[in-house]
Amino acid sequence: MIKLGYALSSEEHEPKKLIAHAQMAESAGFKFLLISDHFHPWVSQQGESSFVWSVLGGIAQATQRVSVGTGVTCPIMRIHPAVIAQAAATIADMMPGRFFLGLGTGEYLNEHILGYPWPRVETRQEMLAEAIHIIRELWKGEEYSYEGNYFMVRDARIYTLPEKLPPIYMAASGPDSAELAAGISDGLISTTPGDEVVKAFKKGDSSGKPCFGSVKVCWAYSMEEAKEVVKKWWPVSGISGLLHVDLPTPKHFEDAVEAMGEPKIPEDSILGPNPNSYLRAIRSLQENSYDHVYIHQVGPDQEGFLKFFKTELLPLLEKEDVVQEAV
Fold first, then answer.
1. What Å distances lie between residue 3 and 182, 211, 289, 290, 311, CA to CA?
2. Which phi and psi (to 5°) does residue 48 adopt?
3. Contact between 108 and 256 (Cβ < 8 Å)
4. Fewer beta carbons within 10 Å, N or C terminal of the chain?
């Protein structure tokens, strides 16, 4: 059995809608939510990029049962890990036992804004490991000072702490980062298809830590309509590798999309109204050892997708024993 989650795209939707979607997703039967943490959208057409910690405060008040986490926060440049430690502790206190902190090495798109040079990925991984160490130390609730290779903390103490500290899940897109995640985090978050990343994570830790995988979808009344929505609202789907993490502004992403010609839709994208396509994609992640799967519905029609999920997809998933039937 797997747990199903719903992605809240801060780049596509304004804060009030994100909170409303979170409430609807909980009612529809999703078990957890991931919310993106961006300073910029990928392209200007998406048009939003709210401060995630403010939105999380609203979600804490609008939901009662669903787990919620950042998907993901970068604690190495734009925001100091000591501030992330305080922010995450506050949200965890507002939704007891329901918050998890997803962390990653980030994208230049969001992290360049303070003018610091963009480190190579190996350096960012070292920075992330040091940041996680600082966060865990501050969560002990004692006065803490630290002088490391990348960060300094002086006489800091977090006073508002939850009764139960949130788990830290780390994003990984390749085997090396997955092995690092196995050693320093409580679980894996990945958008990489296949089983290579999960295998590397489980090789580094076989204790059964959760593994989160993603499915990008666009529900619509027809396949053709869904394709047009993806091309308009998520034209960066075909951009990957170094371009994905090293381009600095939405305009650069727009130029990259234009240079590629017609926006490319990845072959593994799930489009249209057929619930069996969604079932196969979720099954595939389950077969690749992901035990948590979150679905990102591209485009404005979140309400239509959530209705489809509740009335068509979830009953099919329960019938096929992919998820446990709601009690």
1. 20, 10, 12, 10, 18
2. -135, 165
3. no
4. C
| β-bridge mates for residue 215, sequence order | 295
The encoded tokens of residue 323 equal 């998820």
pLDDT, tens digit (0-9, with 9 covering 90-100), for 95-154: 999 999 999 999 999 999 999 999 999 999 999 999 999 999 999 999 999 999 999 999
Phi-psi region of 64 (alpha: psi -120 to 50; beta: other; left: phi over 0): alpha
- Please give the Cα distance from 253 to 38 (Å, whole number): 15
Q: What is the pLDDT of residue 241?
A: 82
Whether residue 72 is preceded by a cis peptide bond, meaning omega within 30 degrees of 0, is yes
Active site residues: 38, 107
Beta strand spans in the chain (E): 3-8, 32-35, 67-70, 99-103, 144-147, 152-156, 168-171, 187-190, 211-218, 270-271, 292-297
CA dist 198 → 116, 133, 170, 194 (Å):
32, 23, 12, 8
First to last CA, the chain: 15
pLDDT at residue 327 is higher than 60 = no
Selection from 294, 292, 237 nearest residue 263 by Cα:
237
Three-state DSSP state, 236: helix
Supply the pTM of this predicted model: 0.96
Least confident window among 35-44, 115-124, 215-224, 254-263: 254-263
Question: Which of these, 296, 279, 67, lies nearest to 191 by C-alpha position?
Answer: 296
Per-residue model confidence as pLDDT tens digits over 207-218: 999 999 999 999
In this predicted structure, what is the pLDDT of residue 326?
A: 63
**Which among 109, 101, 110 has a CA at the least distance from the CA of 71?**
101
**What domains are defined for the chain?**
3-319 (3.20.20.30)
